[in-house]
Amino acid sequence: MDIIVLKRGAASKELRRIVKKLEAKGFKANISKGTERTVIGVIGDTSKITEDEGSAFQMMPGVEKIHRIIKPFKLASRDFKSRNTTIKIGRSTIGSKKIHVMAGPCAIESEPTLLKIAKEVKNAGATFIRGGAFKPRTSPYSFQGLREEGLKILAQARKKTGLPVVTELMDPRDIDAILKYADVIQIGARNMQNFRLLQEVGAHNKPVLLKRGLSATIKELLMAAEYIMAKGNNKVILCERGIRTFETATRNTLDLSAIPVLKNLTHLPVVVDPSHGAGKWDLVAPMAKAAIAAGADGLMIEVHSNPEEALSDGDQSLKPAKFKKLMKELKLVAKAVGREI
Ligand code: PEP
Ligand code: MN
Q: Exposed, middle or buried: residue 237 (CB in 10 Å: 0-12, 13-18, 19+)?
């Protein structure tokens, strides 16, 4: 039920107009007249009232404010589905007691370098290999990725290690290639509100890792998930990867509070990317531990054998030995919060 609060001293003519409009839309109005003001309880399936229709009521004479009880995101909402969603990918189930770590380089650079990293992250306990073949670079002159060649290298890494592949799709025109090689489609922060792209991945059955936009609110992230789910694909994994704030000491501000907030609002699994979140390799371990402690279902971590030579995001990439040490420490944190890695 939504609630419409009328202005102090609203005219009965205004009240009648609102009730008439509600009834015309098939709702019933439950009017309660207090000493100060009148409140209308809207009875019926108010989840069908769109945001625009809600604003139309807000603009009517006599209306002070509208409280929407039903969230604008529906399929993604915990009100709609109370039990946590689990997503099975190969032998891994995301959203279960086990925390999954997706690790690998920012970009696929060559077959030998990727195979080396893939073996090392697997030995350390990662359960997914990550790496970009299509890279969303700020400068058009920076390395843009190996494209389909990179996807083939990822498939080789999966064959050699058994690790499922997470890789970014930037353009609906590349969907067929991505569907052929990826196990999880990553939608990058810069594309979180690329609605045509969201609808495209929503029309397939492949799990999607949806990264929070650089300046997106939690509600906007959930509305983006809703775009994918509304097309029929419920396999959405949310990813907090830091947001833009006034702070310049870190690349982004990793919003750890987003984890419990999301866990309250949605049944979808939540993964945290401390690499992009902090932007410096030495901040990755503390933020990864904090993310697990705060209830994340997984982590995405950039790892490179030779970060000084990396073609992108070397500053925030862990060397394999550091990653291995972190994985050991994470086991203890996971255990402390009733999870396992
Ligand atoms: C990435 O994962 O390498 C990446 C580009 O992430 P984001 O979209 O979060 O910046
Ligand atoms: Mn990166």
A: buried
Residue nearest to atom 1 of ligand 1 (CA): 106
- CA of 137 from ligand 1 middle (Å) equals 9
CA-proximal residue: ligand 1, atom 6 (nearest): 188
Q: What is the mean pLDDT of residues 298-322?
A: 98
Q: What string of H, E and C letters represents the secondary structure of 32-66?
A: EECCCCEEEEEECCHHHCCHHHHHHHHCCCCEEEE
**What are the phi and psi torsion angles at 87 (to 5°)?**
-125, 120
* Beta-sheet strand order (sheet of 28-33): 28-33, 38-43, 2-6, 63-67
Evaluate: CB of 241 within 6 angstroms of ligand 1: yes
- Which residue's CA is minimally distant from atom 3 of ligand 1? 106
Considering only CA atoms, which of 173, 179, 130 is closest in space to residue 312? 130
Query: Quick check: CB of 213 below 6 Å from ligand 1?
Result: no
**pLDDT single digits (tens) 40-58:** 999 988 878 888 888 899 9
For residues 177 and 148, the answer to whether their CB atoms sit within 8 Å is yes
77 Cβ neighbours under 8 A, 6+ residues apart: 71, 222, 265, 266, 267
Q: Whole-model pTM above 0.85?
A: yes
Q: What does the pLDDT look like over 219-245, one tens digit per residue? A: 999 999 999 999 999 999 999 999 999
pLDDT at 120 over 90: yes
For ligand 1, atom 10, name the residue with the nearest CA. 189
Query: What is the residue whose two structure tokens read 């080396």?
Result: 116
Compute, in angstroms, the gap from residue 280 CA to the centroid of ligand 2: 11
Read off the tokens for 172. 């609906």
- Tell me the HSE value of 131 on the side-chain side, using a 13 A CA sphere: 38
Question: Which ligand sits closest to the CA of 300?
Answer: 1
User: How much of the chain, in percent, has pLDDT values that exceed 90?
Assistant: 91
